């Protein structure tokens, strides 16, 4: 399991290509729960206030 | 084998005008396209009245070797005729922006790598956001969503296109792809609240599109949607190429998801072209794609005709092993990048899907939904969860939940904001999209129409002397091919005479 914790994309050799930016490994484990809670607090402020009406009003026509 | 291949994406955006549920979606879509063309100006987008060059469109030609009778086709299949009620533009980045049925659609320019596909796919989001800003400036506030379902029976598409050699028999391609597409969703599904086409059953599933797939192979894209679409419209030299038109995928907002969608598929196509595709045959692919989508624990197995039962991750592992066996010793950087993400995501999904927050769309969305369920004690049928699902894909960076997660670094970025901003105006350099896009920016006013494989010039405005430059080879017209020529000509007349000379 410990080995799995470390598994993440290896940085490519070429210097011009950025490695994935977010610290994926750190985001895992214990920090994850707190991360999600922080996120919920953050997005609470932008959520549609009347969810039922919003969902009801989101009607699309089919596409390809 | 390499991940390099001519490829691109198409996105049909969900569109609403809040407070006006009766607004005509075709009208709203037209507003978006026209607003971009007018706001961006003539050097960035062809005027929407210019039109599309339909001469080479063949939506009823079936890759299995025949053509559907026009009289038998659904009206929605007749995409090769100009509809004066809709709007269409070709952009300086080589993309097409137009009204497709009832949605604004951005078709990205042809690119050569999955990383480029990520960049020009996200550029499309910025293009339509710019249109929304123009409309907002006029007091009309529309919203656009990068999703594929409204939860009430309607599904709209996010498509992928891949150029493949004509010599590979279509049914060989289909046979190699079906098990892969059934399994691929666990890497690249967008996640959806609700099960069934009308969200009849409360719950969460992996794919937006799975419940709307009703056939294994077929020509249709709006009814009886197939896992493998047979539309044979190469937009290139037909004797040499097919364009594989993939309609089974979801719109992905995580860059890693988009990279894997295009990258793994290109690698599997490479296997099929080499005759090295795994010999897997599902007993019931349509039932399998839904069963896998409906189980976010990833334990669901599906039956093969040989009697085995495999999970999606096990099927993908068979493909991954075949890719490994077939790879040469020299793996290019673009291929290595895709393989590293494939391996890491598959390994993490197998241990605990939540490890893939920020890389896999459905996992990222599910983590947020589960957070709300825990905190507020919500059942899956609660409309707040359905609202979060929709708002997840709102493109507005202030309101869209995925956009906010990207802004706060919770979604892994592969493309920088600067790369995406550049791709809004600049075409990719290594395909004919470069010529198409440069014509729009350099010869504003003299390009009358364009398509994937042509640019139609009107050298003297208002005359009937149109000149059509054909581009049947997607790899020609790159910056390397034609950059020096474009830099050297004084105008369209010069360009046209130089092109004719070159061809002689």
From TrEMBL, chain A:
Involved pathway(s): Protein degradation; proteasomal Pup-dependent pathway
Modification Deamidated glutamine occurs at: 64
Region ranges (Disordered): 1-34
Matches recorded under InterPro entries: Ubiquitin-like_Pup (IPR008515)
Superkingdom to which the source organism belongs: Bacteria
Keyword line: Isopeptide bond, Ubl conjugation pathway
Biased segments, Basic and acidic residues type: 1-14
A Pfam family of this chain: Pup
Record cross-link Isoglutamyl lysine isopeptide (Gln-Lys) (interchain with K-? in acceptor proteins), residues: 64
Keyword Ribonucleoprotein: no
UniProt name for this protein: Prokaryotic ubiquitin-like protein Pup
Species annotation: Ornithinimicrobium faecis
Source taxonomy: Bacteria, Bacillati, Actinomycetota, Actinomycetes, Micrococcales
